[in-house]
Every structure is written in structure tokens, then in C-alpha cells.
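Quick review question:
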């Protein structure tokens, strides 16, 4: 969970620097895990999410972590 917390804090800081003015998140971020690589992957792009969900690139599974973010 500490990993996700640092990532969220970084995203918030970058959004503030960029002058984000949206009141509500405009994107959905999804976290994936590949046990054979012991790697996590986080994306807000629908095409990447669909590709991993379809199994086109094998070995990736949703972790269940999702949250809103600003584009």
C-alpha cells in the first residue's frame, strides 16, 4: 500500500504543478500485477486496460486497485 500512496502523492503533486483545475477526476486508473515478473503496472489508458484484460499480453492480472485521476 505504501507503493500506491507514493504514486498517488506524486500524481497529485504533478497535477498541482500543471495547474489542474478539474474538480472531479476525469480518468480511471487501474493497477495490474504480473506474478512471473513480480512487477506492477498502472494505467489510465482504456486501450491498455482492454489489452491486458483480454490477455493479449499474457500474465497480467488486475489487483483490484482502481482510483480516479485527472487527465
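Suggested answer, residue by residue:
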Amino acid at each position: 500500500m505504501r507503493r500506491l500512496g507514493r504514486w498517488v502523492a506524486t500524481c497529485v503533486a504533478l497535477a498541482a504543478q500543471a495547474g489542474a483545475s478539474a474538480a472531479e477526476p476525469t480518468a480511471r486508473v487501474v493497477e495490474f500485477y504480473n506474478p512471473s515478473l513480480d512487477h506492477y503496472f498502472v494505467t489510465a489508458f482504456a486501450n491498455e486496460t482492454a489489452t491486458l484484460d483480454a490477455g493479449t499480453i499474457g500474465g497480467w492480472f488486475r489487483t483490484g486497485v482502481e482510483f480516479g485521476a485527472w487527465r
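Why it works: The radius of gyration is 13 Å. The helical segments are 2-17, 46-54.
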